[in-house]
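User: Please fill in residues for this 100-position structure.
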């Protein structure tokens, strides 16, 4: 991901954390807001985004793959695309449930 995408994800996560903090004080909810659960989810999400950023920094130090690295990337292309789609789906599902 590029720096713009990384920044957008960080801002979106900060927005979700603000919504979580506000939800604790929402009086129209039918029951107590599960703050501990959502706090845990958002903390795990923050750690994942930090890990993605750290990987991006390491990768950007040397953008040329060795022949062995290039072969591994070609061999795992399908699995990496599936993993990326699953992670994206999880993020979109989490944000949907928090907003609604």
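Assistant: Residues filled in for all 100 positions:
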């Amino acid at each position: 991901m590029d720096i713009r995408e990384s920044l957008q994800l960080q801002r979106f996560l900060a927005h979700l954390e603000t919504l979580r903090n506000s939800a604790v004080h929402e009086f129209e909810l039918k029951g107590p807001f599960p703050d501990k659960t959502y706090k845990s989810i958002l903390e795990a999400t923050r750690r994942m985004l930090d890990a993605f950023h750290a990987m991006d920094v390491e990768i950007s130090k040397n953008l040329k793959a060795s022949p062995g690295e290039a072969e591994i990337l070609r061999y795992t292309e399908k699995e990496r695309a599936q993993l990326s789609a699953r992670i994206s789906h999880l993020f979109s599902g989490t944000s949907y449930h928090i907003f609604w």
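For context: Residues 3-99 form one domain.
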